[in-house]
Amino acid sequence: MATRLPEKEIVVIGGGLTAGLVARRLVPAGREVLVLERGPDWSGSAVGELPHQRDELRWSTYRGMTRRENVETYTLRHSPDEEALPMRQLLSFLPGFGVGGAAQHWNGQTWRFSESDYVLRQHLTERYGAKSIPDGMTIQDWGLTYRDLQPYYEEFEALFGIAGKAGNLKGVRQAGGNPFEPWRATEYPLPPLEMSEASQIFKDATGQLGYEAFPLPAANASQPYRNPDGMQLGQCQYCGHCERFTCEANAKATPASLLFPLVRSRPNFELRAGAEVIRLNTTADGTRLESVSYVDVATGQEFIQPGSLFVLCSYTLSNVRLLLLSKIGTPYDPVTRTGTVGKNYCYQVTSGLNMFFPDRYINPFMGAGALGFVIDDFNNDNFDHTGLGFHGGGYISATQTNGRPIDTRRLPPGTPRWGSAWKKANADWYLRSMSISLHGSNYANARNYMDLDPDYKDQWGRPLLRITFDFDENDALMCRFANGRMEEIAAAAGAKIVSKPGVRKSPYDTRQYQSTHNTGGTIMGADPNSSVVSPHLQSWDVENLFISGASVFPQNSGYNPTGPVGALGLRLAGDLLSYLSDPRRLG
Amino acid sequence: MLPDEPQGLSRRSLLTGAGALGVGAGVVAAAPGAVLVRQAGAEEASPPATASGQAAQPDAVAGYQSLGIEEAAIVEALVAHMWPADDLSPDGVALGIAIFIDRQLAGAYGQGDRLYLSGPFRQGKPEHGYQLACTPEACLKTGLRHLAEISDRRHAAPPDRLTADQLEALLHDISETPPEPGAFDLKAWFNELFYPLFVRGAFADPIYGGNRDKQAWRMIGYPGLPATYTTDMVTWRGRRHPASDTPMSIQDFS
User: Fold this and answer.
1) ipTM associated with this complex
2) What residues contact A298, with CB distance under 8 A and at least 6 apart?
3) pLDDT tens, residue by residue, A313-349
4) Catalytic residues of A
5) Separation between Cα atoms, residue B79 and residue B98, nearest integer Å
6) Which end of chain B, C or N, has fewer beta carbons within 10 A?
7) pLDDT for the residue A252
8) In a mutagenesis test of the A interface, which of B127, B214, B225 is the best target, namely the one with the most A β-carbons within 10 Å?
9) Are B98 and B32 in contact, with CB atoms under 8 Å apart?
10) Is residue A1 very low, low, confident or very high in pLDDT (cuts 50, 70, 90)?
11) What is the predicted pLDDT for the residue at A587?
12) DSSP assignment of A339-373, as one string?
């Protein structure tokens, strides 16, 4: 028998980045906010303290900070006519777990999406004609433009102390920054990180080819920093323990360091960790949310938490699953292409190559999550796609994130996998090798979507989310094109040995880490028939429900998603205040 | 150990009652199993020698928790073959890789503490990843059993009694050959379970029993802890960092 609790004004589901952004704005405004987070509160535990913070086996190999598969995992099939199997180990992406979510163990790469991203279908139609977009490529416009988000990008970068170099200040080109950057109002709050040998090699090689490499925008503070809220970041130590770890030096911007401390002691704020929301409960007519049901994961006891306004801030895939489990909205049907919940699931197309330099010390262990030089010439529509047969692209970079020895030992092609020759190759090349990588777009495909699995259930007996996904021809062609550019860079760099980059193609391999950038499923748009939430992230079906995170992206760009997720989260916080003062459908 | 010398004799000698005394001291000494041998009365077994020529300290974590004696013999034979003694380091058993694997099997990972282990169980494509109903510990042991059966069929001997060439051929076969329909997938077992454990045992922090005395870190030049390189980014850019020669582990700071 579930216990009914006293009503709270605002109930936030999930305790990650956007929950923190919402709480930061609403709590000081006097609103009552309850955050329900199913994972633990990491603060004060070994994960953030030396020497154990540097334990690669525990935090990286065994993914100690990320979601446990027996709490929630997903099933996967490559096409709608197959049976799905569960991802019994989550290896290809790493959802967050606990207070701060994935933004607690992230790398810190903080981009603004291209201006064309928000109006992708319109843009490609205007430039290449409607026929250039394949029938199955179900890309959509966001229902807003870059101009709408620009101030929120600015605010998010200031809050998180992003280190970088502007390439476009109010339309004026800036040397040293990204020539393709959408215009920005101010310089980055912090100067770029100190670059590694690998990054310098990349900058020199791309310069020879006529590209202008620029520093990757990083939420790894290059200097001590105090943000506009008065919150403090320390200086990055280049320790190579960002992704999959939390920062021992407090130099990586996270919700737990910058957002939640602002509100934690306020009487009108409560963060309940270990509270797993299992259902959103609508009123009888289905037009409003009345409460959420959650389980106290320590006792297994079920509670009903009523509220007047609800914000769904869990991970992309969990947002979608909660809507489907709660029967909110119409599930997407890939045959008729009707319905919206689960639609336009997208991932990220990545590849890379390794370079080996017998006479150069790269020192891969000196790194930071978002450290490196980048070229953006082959991202999205920054280059002419006429005659190429694909849309989209990605940025090419030489990041030096870590040289942790279990996972990051590059070996020349043809090296045996064990024995003395293998040992010698490790000894020869660990300090003298580097990689170049592609981080590419993934445009929506009618066959790729999410629904509830008919067979597999979680520990509370609820169906798992089923992902139907595979890379398509567009992805393979884009990847092959970008791989060619990477090979040219490797040749210009004068590497003695270069590995062959893999083409990202079918079947999608769940065993290999690719990126945690899953997007879509509760997509935003101006038309209720083709989107789940409005451009203000308000559910079209349930007026007092707002949805946040990368689940609202109509398709994925060739950039990391945290910048736009943060900007959308800040914009949402303002919209929520407006809604609370006058509950209505926001325009 | 000579490349072609049959491995694991000490342990099987013990099992068969032949005793360890007739076996070369070098063979006995290479294994943590030397503890067992010493208990059997071979006190003269000398401590294992490291590549640098120093006698290693007695191993505080020797002795298996999960692996049985025959299982341990196979694991030791595999890791000593895959990480052979040479001028870079002693072999994988002396490096502690077998002990590392044993500890992982007995611990949270081996018990599948976070694995999704609900049915139904179906055979998927390789790209679906782990689809077995058993914990990593049980699965690893099942694979060892299958490996022993193949070895027995081919050579009328367990894996730990094969010559280096025989073992090398066997490992290549199982790691490259897709399984027969319905058969236990030794290819996935080796590539996705045993091999990753082997690598982790070599390169993880020594607190887990492998990478003894940080020898694998020293071999490649990984400095371990502490890693604070703010000024070093400039000072040591493009040059060999001195910390590469003197790695520090969690143990050193605990």
Assistant:
1) 0.95
2) A274
3) 999 999 999 999 999 999 999 999 999 999 999 999 9
4) 517
5) 7
6) C
7) 97
8) B127
9) yes
10) confident
11) 77
12) --BTEEEE--EEEEEEEE-TT----TTSB-TT-EE
Tell me which residues of chain B, numbers 24 to 63, contact chain A at a CB-CB cutoff of 8 Å: none
Tens of pLDDT, residue by residue over B14-63, are 444 433 333 323 333 333 333 322 233 333 333 343 444 344 444 555 79
- Give Cα B115 to chain centroid, integer Å: 23
Contact assignment for A361 to B238 by CB distance below 8 Å:
yes
Total number of residues shown for chain B: 254
Going by the DSSP 8-state scheme, the letter that residue A181 receives in this structure is P
Of A56, A69, A431, nearest to B116 by CB-CB distance is: A69
Cα distance between the two ends of chain A: 40
Q: What is the pLDDT of residues A95-127, one digit of tens each?
A: 999 999 999 999 999 999 999 999 999 999 999
Q: What is the pTM of this model?
A: 0.92
Tokens of A439: 């981080």
A239·B227 Cβ contact <8 A = yes
A559 vs B227, residue with greater confidence: A559
Angle between helices A197-208 and A473-493 (to 10 degrees): 100
Q: Do A54 and B225 touch (CB under 8 A)?
A: yes
Q: Sign of torsion, CA A177 A181 A186 A192?
A: negative
- Whole-number Å distance between alpha carbons of B245 and A425: 18
Output Rg (C-alpha) for chain A, integer angstroms: 23
Does A237 contact B198 at a Cβ distance shorter than 8 Å? no
Q: Which residues of A touch B214 (CB under 8 A)?
A: none
Backbone phi and psi for residue A162, each to the nearest 5 degrees, phi listed first: -70, 130
Which chain B residue has its CA at the smallest distance from A427's CA? Answer: B220
Q: pLDDT tens-digit profile of A35-86?
A: 999 999 887 777 778 888 899 999 999 999 999 999 999 999 999 999 999 9
What's the confidence (pLDDT) of residue A454? 98
List the structure tokens of B73: 């013999």
Q: Smallest Cβ distance to B199: which of A68, A406, A511?
A: A406
In angstroms, the CA B40 to CA B36 distance is 6
Spatial distance between the Cα atoms of A118 and B91, rounded to a whole number of angstroms: 57
Choice among B25-39, B101-115, B166-180 with the minimum mean pLDDT: B25-39
Q: Mind spelling out the 3-state secondary structure of A191-231?
A: CCCCCCHHHHHHHHHHHHCCCCCEECCECECCCCEECCCCC
Question: Between residues 125 and 164 of chain B, which touch chain A (CB distance below 8 Å)?
Answer: 125-131
Pairing of strands A3-4, A8-13: unpaired
Verify whether the Cβ–Cβ distance B230 to A235 is below 8 Å: yes
Scanning A391-430 for CB atoms below 8 A from B yields 403, 405-406, 409, 417-420, 423-424, 426-427, 430
| Tokens of residue B76, six digits | 């030791």
d(CA A528, CA A540): 6
pLDDT surpassing 80 at residue A373: yes
Question: Which pLDDT belongs to residue B58?
Answer: 46
Contacts of B221 in chain A (CB under 8 A): 427, 430-431
Strands of the sheet with A394-399, listed across from one edge: A214-215, A372-375, A394-399, A433-440, A349-356, A497-498
Which tokens in the block code for residue B164? 């280096």
| pLDDT, mean of residues A496-509 | 93
Q: Please, what is the average pLDDT of chain A?
A: 97
Give the nearest partner residue to B127 out of A61, A73, A509, using CB atoms: A509
DSSP character at residue A103: G
Measured CA distances, A222 to A56, A164, A251, B231 (Å): 24, 9, 8, 11
Distance from CA of B161 to the nearest CA of A (A): 18
Tokens at residue A264, please? 């934690």
